[in-house]
Each structure stands twice: as structure tokens, then as C-alpha cells.
Amino acid sequence: MLNFVYDNSTKMVFGKNTEQEVGKLTKEAGTKVLLHYGSGSIKKYGLYDKIIKSLREENVDFVELGGVVPNPRLSLVNKGIELCRKENVDFILAVGGGSAIDSAKAIALGVNYDGDVWDFYSKGAQPQEVLPVGVVLTIPAAGSESSVSSVITNENGNFKRGFRSEVIRPKFAILNPEITYTLPNYQTSCGAVDMIGHVIERYFTNTTNVEITDRLSESVMTTVINNAPLALNDNTDYNSRAELMWAGALAHNGICGTGRVEDWASHAMEHELSGIYDIAHGAGLAIVYPAWMKYVYKHDLSRFALFANKVFGIEVNGDNLEETALKGIEKLEEFYRSINMPTRFSDANMTDEHIEEMATKASNNGEKIIGQFVKLNKEDIINIYKLAL
Q1: I want to staple 55 with a disulfide (CB 3.0 to 4.6 A). Which of 60, 73, 340, 342 is the partner?
Q2: Mean of pLDDT over the chain
Q3: Do 173 and 261 belong to one domain?
Q4: What is the percent of the chain with per-residue pLDDT over 70, rounded to a whole number?
Q5: Which strands make up the sheet holding 172-175, listed edge to edge?
Q6: Do residues 218 and 248 both lie within one domain?
Q7: CATH code of 226's domain
Q8: Is the distance from CB of 132 to CB of 30 less than 8 angstroms?
Q9: Is residue 4 part of a domain?
């Protein structure tokens, strides 16, 4: 186990009717608020009215910016930055899923920055002063409600890039599983894949003697696998929705990565998929992970056999670890298909025409190696994309 510092400062407020506390929590953090959300579902199902009511009861002044879409766009981020500067906003409240939260984080980065906010995502710029962010979560998936990450798509070139820093971790996150009752099954399924993916990126590591983190990771993955079908079968099953919502937070708040080197190659490859094809992130991950696993599993058969055993209950064949490893990969792919996720390019009506372009972008014109479990160059990335056809 490696040395680590774990410090998650996000206040998590979990349970029924907790969105009613948003006014009080926001008032403690800011005086003029940007309310940032998506395309209108929060208005359709009444959450918007509850948020506004709570803010007004606490005399919190606010302005609004809707219009966030999946794979959130840099152009809207820039609009948010301009609005915050004009209105002297000092706090951003994101109401939505990972896209709204990531967009809010990007706006928070850019308000007090003299340059282009894309510098943080493309040039390694580091923030000096950011606005605080709060969250009312509507889609359990990305884990952005308590993570240090933000991912934004630049329409100029279709580049999807991420930025990580402790300073953009939200101050609070309100998690009411009841809010997720109205989610389409597709979004619930994409969220389940995303949660498992955040753990896979941490679970497949070359770091040894990390048993406690392994057991935590396996528990999060099995919880998602057990509860996603229940939530899909009954959208108003509070218990399964609650399990998924908390699992999403635990999958990406850093706890499952403590004491180990993380990988993140599959996320890098998926970012190019959704950057080019605008596919939902979870759906893209369901395509990439089985292909990545089939390409790298021989690097550590025992780790893949452990995954098969602990996550899917497959008995380990000590005389043939490869057989056990492959069964685990097969089971993961079967789970994705069981919740109606694509596992091949063809399932999502994608072809091989952009493979070279995506591999070039992921590898920074062939100059960058991605991943830590197995280090991948441009040729490796092309081969993995081809395995996913």
C-alpha cells in the first residue's frame, strides 16, 4: 500500500426531502448564486420549484443558466463565466447530474481567471481562486457531486478533456433518491456503467497489498450490479435507488483509490468516443471496458481472476487462471447487455472510420502514453478500438 492523503470535504446530505435544505446550505456559502441546470426536466417534474422556494425562503439572491447537455460544452461554460462576472456571483449551485456539475465546476474555475478556461483542461493551468460549488444531484452516475474532477467538451475540434483539483470539490451535495424516480431507464443504465467504471479504473492496479481498498471496491461494484436491475424493474423502488445513489458517490470520491496507482486508460479512450460521436459516457464505457480487458488481462491473470471471483462469484480455477479471468470479462459484458447497454461499436451505430483520429487524439499525436496498469501507446489504442468493433 502506498502513502496517501484522503481529505473529502464535501458535506453529503442524503435522504428523502433533503432538497428542501438547499436554501439554508447555499446561504451558508454564498450571497449571490448562479443556478445551473440542464434542459428542463427539473422544471417538468417539480424539482425546480422546490429549489426556488427554498432559496427564496432564505432570501438567497440568484440568477439562472440552463441548457447543459450531456458531454457539457465549453461554449455554455463561457456564457456562465460571463454571467457570473456581470452579476457578481459568488456561489454556483448545480442541479442535475454529472454534466451540470462538471459545467458548474468549469464556470467556477473560469470566473476569476484572466485567461481561457480551456487552459485548465488542455494546458495544465492551475487555479488560484475558484468559486465554491454546491449540488442537488438528479442522476447518480458520474460521482462529480463529491469528486475533484470535471470533464468538458470543446466543440472546436470535438475535444473532450478532464481537469482534476481539490479546489473544485463541491462544498455540499444533496442526494435524495426519490428525485431519480423519473429517470429514463437508459440514463439509469448509463449511470450504473459509469459507477462500475470509476471503480475498475482504480481496481486494476500494479500496487500490491491493498486488500482493504480491494474489498471496498468489490463491494461498490457488486452493489451496483445487484441493484441496477431492481431500479430498472421498478423506478420507484427507493431502496435500490438509494443504494445506487450512494454507490455512485463512493465510486468516485477517492476512497476506492486510496493506497494505489490508478489506471484511467479506458476513460481516456471513451472521451474520444463521446467527443466524436456524442454518445453518453456510460454507454461509451460499456463498449470500451470489455475490449480493454481482453487486450490487457494477461498482464495480471491473478487480478482478473480475483475480479471474477469477488464481483461475479466465479470459482477460481487455480490450474487455469486465464479461464477464470475470461469468464469474469464475459460476465461483465453480459451484465452490460442485460441492462441494455451497447458493448460494440456496431451496437451504437458507430463504424471504424474515426478510429485513427480518436487514437491520435487520445495519444496526443502519438506522443502520449495512457494508463498505468498497462501503458498504452497509439497502436495499442487502435487495437483496443478494433476489438470493440
Answers
A1: 60
A2: 97
A3: no
A4: 100
A5: 11-14, 172-175, 133-137, 91-96, 32-37, 61-65
A6: yes
A7: 1.20.1090.10
A8: yes
A9: no
Query: Is the pLDDT score of 237 beyond 90?
Result: yes
pLDDT, tens only, 369-389: 999 999 999 999 999 999 999
pLDDT in tens, 102-120: 999 999 999 999 999 999 9
Say how far apart CA 265 and CA 247 lie, in whole Å.
Answer: 22
DSSP assignments along 320-358, one per residue: -HHHHHHHHHHHHHHHHHHTT---SGGGGT--STTHHHH
- Domain residues for the domain of 330 are 185-387
**C-alpha–C-alpha distance, residues 310 and 290, integer Å:** 18
Nine cell digits for residue 328 = 469474469
> Residue 211 and residue 387: Cα distance in Å, rounded?
31
Any domain includes 3: no
Cβ neighbour number for residue 18 with a 10 Å cutoff:
20
The helix/strand/coil state of 135 is strand
The whole-angstrom separation of Cα 260 and Cα 251 is 15
C-alpha cell at 140: 447518480
Last residue of a domain, which of 133, 163, 178? 178
Residue of 291, 296, 271 lying closest to 364 (CA atoms)? 271
Residue 5 lies in a domain: no
Q: Which of 178, 207, 230 is the last residue of a domain?
A: 178
Q: What is the 3-state secondary structure (H, E, C) of 52-99?
A: HHHHHHCCCEEEEECCCCCCCEHHHHHHHHHHHHHHCCCEEEEEECHH
Is the pLDDT reported for residue 40 higher than 90?
no
* Count of structural domains within the chain: 2
Q: Are 16 and 245 in contact (CB under 8 A)?
A: no
* CA 223, chain centre distance (Å): 17
Are residues 297 and 352 both part of a single domain?
yes
